[in-house]
Amino acid sequence: MSGNVLVLGATSAIARGTAAAFAARGDNLYLASRDLEELKRIAADLHVRYGVKVHYGLFDAEATATHAAFFQSVIMEMHELSGVVLAFGLLGDQQAARDFNVAEKIIASNFTGAVSILSHCANHFEPLKRGFIIGISSVAGDRGRQSNYVYGAAKGALSLYLQGLRNRLFASGVRVVTIKPGFVDTAMTFGLPGLFLVASPQEIGQKIVQTLNKSADVVYLPGFWRYIMLIIKHIPEPIFKRMKM
Question: Hey, where are the domains in the chain?
Fold first, then answer.
């Protein structure tokens, strides 16, 4: 069943794949990010390929004071929303993140900004007793590792926030799904050492949309990452702290 979907962070590779998958099933879209020129190109492409209505607008995850007005503008333009996909984030550099100013930006982009805009989304859907929120977290949030623990901490906090939001909104019939991708072929991961079993953003986007037809609340993509992270989470701390991960 088609509807209207807001995609936050719509210029990211995973968001593009997800937006295309929603458009392919007939959903109209509102694409939001900080790059209006790129949004314009993506919107035109999706409209031509799938024949759906595609709106777009400026959204800055870190500018939390603007989020209320932004969300209201989306509602005014779309009239109603079926759901929201939160797909923005910043990996950053762990070495640079030893400087708190850098770490703070990573946290703001991946967690603080997400809590801000999702508060508005949740408050909108709850009295309507319908809708869905899909939050893209990461397997990096399952256990702190020296290679990306600031990013992982922010994503871990996002996963916990989504879990609490899911608990809050369940009685209202609002679906909250946490997506935990593993390695995906994106600009954010390009050139990073140690990547394996890298998935395409198109494949991930299709899987994200398919989760709405299933009952799972937390989805690892691709699915085998659930088992990889299960092993990693159960490595005893005396051993784990000696590992280079």
Answer: 4-240
Q: Are 158 and 111 in contact (CB under 8 A)?
A: yes
- pTM confidence score: 0.91
Identify the CATH number of the domain defined by range 4-240.
Answer: 3.40.50.720
Q: What is the pLDDT of residues 163-182, one digit of tens each?
A: 999 999 999 999 999 999 98
Phi and psi at residue 181, in whole multiples of 5°? -75, 150
For 179-192, how does the pLDDT look when each residue is reduced to its tens digit (9 = 90+)?
999 877 655 543 44
Q: What is the DSSP string of 101-167?
A: HHHHHHHIIIIIHHHHHHHHHHHHHHHHT--EEEEE--GGGSS--TTTHHHHHHHHHHHHHHHHHHH
